[in-house]
Amino acid sequence: MVPEYFQHEQQKTRLAEEVEPVGDAVQQHALEQLITKTADAVIAIDRYFRVRYLNPACSAAINWTAEQAVGRSCTEVLRCKNLSHMPLCGTVHCPLIKALEQGKPLPNEEVIIGAEPGCACEVFTSVTPVEINGEPLVFFIAHDTAAVKVASQVRANFVSMVSHELRTPLNSVHGFIDLLLQGHMGELNEEQHLYLSYAQEGVQQLISIVEDILFMTRSDSGQFEIKPQEVNFRVLARQVVNSMKPLALKAGVIIYKDIPTPSPMLYADPGRLKQVLNNLVANAIKFTPPGGTVTIRARPHNERFVKIFVEDTGCGIPLEDRPHIFERFYQSNNKQQSKVGGYGLGLSIARLIVEQHGGEISFESEIDRGTTFSFTIPRVP
Asked: Distance between CA atoms of 303 and 175, rounded to whole angstroms?
C-alpha cells in the first residue's frame, strides 16, 4: 500500500507534467502588467539621455505624464541629485553614465529625483543597462525611501542630540586639563604631567569623534554646504604638515611635500579641503611603521581639475577590506587595524567633501609596499 504522502507527491508530479510553458505573448503581457501596476517607479532612458518610457508610479512621483516626458532629456525630467542635494547630471557620478561605462547593473544607488518644485523624492534605485533590438537603454527602477527615512531621521536626531550634549562637557574638561598642564593651578611633577597629557589626548579623541558624527548628521539632513574660494595648495599643505608633525614624530614617520612651482591654485573650501588632507595623512601615519614616509603630492589632472595624492610606505590595505574602505564605521579585522584603532568615519567624510567639490577619490594599495589615496579638486576657473 502506497503511503498517503507519496500519493500526494505523485499527484503533484502529474499536475506539473500537464502544465504547459507560458507563451511569449503571455510573458510579455505579464511583464507589461507588472511594470504598469508596480508601486516602484520605472523609467527607461536611451544613450542620448532621452526619456523613452516611464510607468504611472514614476509619473506620480515626479509629476510628469508619459506624454510630457517621453523624448525629453532626463536632466529636465529627473534632474538627479545626491543626498547632499548636489546635481549629478553631467558629472562622473551620474548613475546613467556609470552604468553605461561599466556595462553592468548598479544595484543600490541612493539619489534624489524630480525636477518639479515640491516633487523631489529620495529613492533607492537599481540602474540596469539592457539592449533592445540593438539599441542600448538604461532602466531605472526606484523605490521610495520615505518610510525608511523617517526611522533613519529619528535615529539621526537622537545621535545629533547626544553629540551636542557631549560636546559641551568634553570641551570644558579639555579646557580645564589644558589649564592644569600650563601650571595655572600649581606646579606639576613629571608623573602628573604625563598622566594629564594622556587624559587630554583621550578627551581630544572623543571631541573629534563627536565633531565627525555631527558633520555626518548635518550632511544627511542636507545642512552641509561648501564655501569655495581661491586656495594656494602649497600654503594649505604646509598648514596640514605642521598640524600633523606631533603625530608623525610620535610614530617615527617623516612627512614630505612634492608640489610643483608655481603652486596649483584651487577653487575649494579651504577648511573642508584641509579636513580631507588631515584625515588622509593621519590614516597614512597610523598605518606606516617607524622609519617610513608619507608624501603629499599635487599634479595637473586636466583643464578643470588638479589631482592630489597622499602616498605612504605602510602595510597596505588587505584585499577583503578594499570594497568597504569608504563605508561609514567600517572596521577591518586585521591585526594592524586593531593596533591603531579608529572608528571608521574619516574616509567617508573625505569622500563626501571631495564629491561635494565635484571631484572623485580613489586609492591603490600593495601589501607591505604602501597605499596611495588620490582625489581631484577643481582649479580656479
From this structure: 47
Superfamily of 229-378 according to CATH: Histidine kinase-like ATPase, C-terminal domain (3.30.565.10)
Instruction: Report CA-CA distances (Å) from 121 to 63, 98, 116, 145, 197.
Output: 11, 21, 10, 8, 49
Q: What's the grid cell of residue 325?
A: 574602505
**C-beta neighbour count of 56 within 10 angstroms:** 16
Give me the CATH code for the 148-220 domain, please.
1.10.287.130
Residue ranges of alpha helices (H) inside the chain are: 4-18, 24-37, 56-62, 66-69, 74-77, 95-102, 146-181, 190-220, 233-251, 270-286, 335-340, 346-356
Question: Quick check: pTM over 0.70?
Answer: no
pLDDT in tens, 300-335: 888 889 999 999 999 888 888 888 888 877 776 666
Mean pLDDT per 10-residue interval, the chain, length 381 residues? 50 52 66 79 86 86 84 84 80 81 79 73 82 82 71 67 77 86 85 85 79 74 79 92 89 91 89 91 92 93 91 90 83 59 77 90 91 93 79
Residue indicated by cell numbers 595624492: 309
Cell of 363: 586609492
Which CATH class for the 21-144 domain? alpha beta
Return all residues near 181 (Cβ < 8 A) that are at least 6 apart: 188, 193, 196, 197, 200
Residues 84-103 pLDDT 10s? 778 888 787 888 888 878 77
| Residue 252 backbone class (left: φ over 0; alpha: ψ -120 to 50; beta: rest) | left
Cis amide linkage into residue 262, ω under 30° from 0:
yes
Q: What is the dihedral of CA 203, 206, 210, 211, to 10 degrees?
A: 70
Please name every residue paired with 310 in a beta bridge, in sequence order, or none if there are none: 296, 373
Q: Strand 135-144's sheet: what is its strand order?
A: 51-54, 41-46, 135-144, 121-132, 106-113
Return the domain boundaries, the chain.
21-144, 148-220, 229-378
